[in-house]
Structures are given as C-alpha cells and as structure tokens.
Sequence to fold (265 residues):
Amino acid sequence: MDQRTRILRVIGSLLMFSAIAVPPAAAQGRGAGPQGGRGPAPVLTAKAAARIDLTGYWVSLVTEDWRHRMFTPPKGDYESVPLSAAGRGRADGWDPSKDEAAGEQCRAYGAGGVMRLPTRLHITWQDETTLKVETDAGTQTRLLYFGMPQGDGGEWQGVSVASWDYPQGPVPGRGRGGPPPGGSLKAVTTRLRSGYLRKNGVPYSASAVLTEYFERLDVPGGESLLVVIQELVDPENLASPYWTSSHFQRQNDATGWRPTPCSAR
Fold:
C-alpha cells in the first residue's frame, strides 16, 4: 500500500466515524442561526440568559432561629451549628470590644453570615455578566461574577463565581415546547475574610467555601419569594458542612431601605 492510499483510507475512516458519532438532530441544527439562517447561534450574556428575575428590593422573613437572628445571642450559644472543638474554642473567646478596637465590626456581615441577619436586599445587574447584591444591614455589596471572577479576595464578601442552574431540557428531536421552567442562580464564594456565622462570634475561616442557590418562588396572590440556600464548608471550624435557608419577600419599591453601619454587638 502506497503512502497516498494509506492517507485516503485514514481520512475515509475519520469521516465515517464523524457521520456515526453525530446524531442527525444535532447535525441538522449545527450552523443554524436565527430564523433558520446559517451561522452560529448568538451567544447570550448572563443577563440575557436569565430565565428568572432576581432583581429588585427584597426584605428578609425571619421565620426560624428567631433568637439567633433578631438579637445577638449570648456567648457560647451556638446551638445547631456543627462546630468542631477548635471552632467552639474560638466562639467561646468572642469579645465584641476587641472586634471594635480592631476595626472589625463587620465580622458578622461577610458573605457567610449577612444573609441570616434581618436585612433588606437590593439586587441589580451591574453589567451584562455581573449581578450586584446590596444589603442595608452593614451596607455591604456582593458581586456575583458569571465567567472569570475579578479581584484578589480577602474582603468580607470574598470572590463569587456565578452560573445559572437550570433543569435539563428534553432530548433533541423528542418532545415539544421550550425549556422546562424553574431553575436557580448558583454562586460559589471563596477567598473570604474570616468572619462570623452569627453575631456572637461563631466563626468561619478565610479558607471556607460557601455555595449558594438563589431561587425565586411566585406564590398565589401575586407575592414573590426569594430563597437563598447556603452550604458552608470550613474544616478549620466545622465538623461537617453547615446548611441554612433564608427567605425574602419582594417589595414593589425601596420602602424601608435604610443602609446602616456594621455593629459588633
């Protein structure tokens, strides 16, 4: 077999494999643009790809853990938090006067704790790929980046990478209709500044990893709820992951929005 014949056989084998490997529906859809035209489909920005609207003003609904969330619990009250021995030791050493002297009154207002405080949220799109979440408690601003994160971290809100988490659609070529309803915003936050899960010094470290799901629920009567589900993993202070869910109700306007400074007490 000469060299030319060998090359033609290799090319033929590759073409045959491609014809088998690509499903007919996918092959037909490749290159199809809007209105059935040719060319690649447009790439949507994170803002344009949103199937759920999280923007607007939201007020927290404190329906559980009232005494831990509405008031600063006493030292040593870390009920329901799976603290390790090291974490309990740090919590037992809480001293708000030391935090104030060190200029660290915002320890409970970092990404790991602020959603559990009685607060209002103002959620807006800063640009096409960045969702901004502001809290009036502690006057904090979180930036959720779709794609490449920005910043070096080390601040109270850390660095958050966001993505849309949607139900899978039907198999190509089967079923009808558009994409299934529902979905959530997923945010993974790292490079945090060490802070408190609760205002009474229950700690999380700078190496903690916070994973969140933001879900919107539209209930009968026209009300809309936002549920923020959090998982915080911190081997330095926790014996197991710490799960919480915080609820917010949507407001029509900025009524009650009052940014206030952090407080250590």
